[in-house]
Amino acid sequence: MEAPLRIGFVPEHFSTPLRLAIDCFSLHAELVPFLSGTGHIVTAMREGSIDVGVGLTEGWVMGLGSGKGKTKKEEKERERQMEREFKIVGTYVESPLQWSINTGATRDSLTTSKDLQHTRVGVSRLGSGSHIMAFVLAEQEGWLTSTSTSTSPSSPAVSDPNSKISPYESLIPCGPFPDLRTAVSDPSGNPQADFFLWEHFTSSRYFAPGYDQKDALKSLGDISSPWGASWLIVAQSSLLLTPSSSSPSLKQEIDPRLENLFTTLDTSITYFNAHIPEMITYISTTMDYSREDVETWIETVRFAGKEGGGTRGVDRKVVERAWGVLRDVGVLDDDGEEKEGIEGMVGLWRG
Whole-prediction pTM value? Predict the structure, then answer.
């Protein structure tokens, strides 16, 4: 028997169909959890320690679209690296992600998102969704200037605490969600960060006054990812046996294990959609979510199953929108090579 696919994922409510695929539909795979989110999975994909990743759209586009070399030698090395790197191959969640803008429950000086310009942003990792969405927030609030939008997360100007051109005072890598909560609500009176962005329903259980521990949060509002499908699937390039093609008449040959992943996930998502009460009970009793929150969340989420476009492949418009937004808010370099860049990061298009 072939080795199981090693699948990197974020262990939260969105992972339920993936877990069902293994537990109920015999998917031959090993789930590898990454508590810090998509940015950490990007690193693991680059290192080759996992075969497949399921994570946020913006994290994949950022991870695959950044890092352009400044010299011809660096650029050639980058091109060689891209040939070995992973590609976007599938769609997991069709609906946008709802992010909560969080700060400590006792941070009385912060009352709305408009108070956050030039403050310290907590992020799980540089290049993560929490990092990228902070710049989407800045763009929506009108805090980006022609100077600040020319910077990117890989640029020292953005991650440097002394930066004067970022819309924020500094970006503070804090680690997973519990560490982010602590960073904005330090009871000693010296919090490490002022706010952070995290998925709304993962955050809401920790909102005061219902939650009264020292790391309690309050929300300053919500923001949604503006590119549509919020979760995509990536795979190592070695699992793609024929080159990418945008022609719907040419179906690419891929590793049978990857093909089986798409088929089994489609079946698992169909089961999920047909057994909503069971799924609500499962998530609220096995994960850190209240039943009320799960009931609300499940009305907002739309997984990419057979009823939609399926999990195999990605819509061009999703990648184009994400690329465009990330470029506009300054976290991808605007080098005039959008088409080439997008083609290089996708391994399977939807036909």
Answer: 0.89
